[in-house]
Amino acid sequence: MLKSLSKVVGSLLYAALPSLQLIMRRGSSGNIMIRRSYPHQSFVIRCAIASRILLLVLILLWRNLVSSYDTSSPLNPECLSSNSESRQEWNVLLPRLGSAVEDSVVWDGVYFVRIAQCGYEYEQSYAFLPLLPVLMSILSRTIFAPLVPLIGFRAVLSLAGYAVNNVAFVFAAVYLYRLSVLILDNTQVALTASVLFCFNPASIFYSSIYTESLYSLSSLGGLYHLISGATNISVLWFALSACARSNGVLNAGYFCIQTMHRVYDVVFLQKRTCSAVQVIVLGVLRCFCTFAPFIAFQTYGYFNLCLGLPLDEVRPWCKAKIPLLYNYIQGRYWGVGFLTYFQFKQLPNFLLASPILSLSLCSIIHYMRSQPRMFFSLGFLSPDGQTRARHASDSSTISSYKTQDKVGASHRKKHMTEEDNDHSASVEINEALDKGRRISAFVVPCTLHMAFMAATAFFVMHVQVATRFLSSSPPLYWFASSKMLAGKKWGKLVQGYCIAYILLGSLLFSNFYPFT
Fold this sequence. Notes:
The chain is mainly alpha-helical.
């Protein structure tokens, strides 16, 4: 399976990878989008790279100072299938280096390396979706192939996983910055939000063999292209997010809201009722494309684990009307379920997740209170209660820069002193923060998406994973950055939270101690 998927995913990524150059796009309505400038993009890239280097230094430091809690991760029995490419190298040139790399693989990373090497052997391994293992397999057989005789195939797979996730994180940071500039129309807040993302509390997972980096890249990339007017490209990115994590299917909600707004425009504004059917069908197809990778993977598991077995050996989930393997695995092997984690002994884990859950709740309340009419109407009403003629779900409605004002402002700034320039920038930031009604309506679906994920993390999942589960939600960083720019108290609180969790996470997680 991995070999066949490798070619498919490789071609999809090649087609989806953005050029990261300033471009002009045509929106779905045919209007030309105004050229956007991203003055701080290079700084965001440097911050993203610097944060990954910092995490690497911390990991090496803690690994040498603290003994690992569990030393079983290097154990690597032969693959069960004779068709799998086990590649057990006994005569590698640098065995110590290979062992050191393998020792660094902990927690879920062990599953991903095993899947990349041997495929899906056990029922519980189907809880891990195939995008990351496929990319690891591709790199280990291409770019990193010369390293196999030096450190061994399993160590090369591990290096490939680290490379994929750290590179993906840099692109995800760029996408968040571009997305923030488009939606917030404020480069200062967008820059601060992006820097916060680079040093977010779940940073250790973005540099480990986990799916956080790939999911963030595909989700943020999909959002950016959606509001830029490249809807078909956004479909591809959202489909990739569903290949990385199961919650990638939630991104179909953006197409649902977009379709609702477009149907309203066609029926009530353009008076073309017959065209509404075409809009609805197109929206359904886009949602299906987002769901398709997850459905295909569940079908693959059903064929592998359910068909051809004697009736007495068939697993219980195979007999269900809708045989959903993922839900069964989460409940059977990890005890995931509604309120199942509400136990007194889990109180420390609730405390560990309380900062990110509190920040999420504050973000939701902030956007609800700043624009209640727009929020509860899903963007159909403007802040003053009037029906919006154009909506944020349509690419043509993204608020644009007032070009003439910007040109005039830049001309005046050339004659300003440094002190006046700082004062003007401060005034501009405060004005943007005070006028919550100017926030794009696209914040609404982003906030609803985050609210659903926060509720799921609190009531259904192991609550401690909320730190990394919610770390890819843009409204968290938009809200935190606006508060940081508005007051020093919030700034110190957010900075302290990020620093503490980066240090704590790199210490505990890298040494196989429970974190999130």
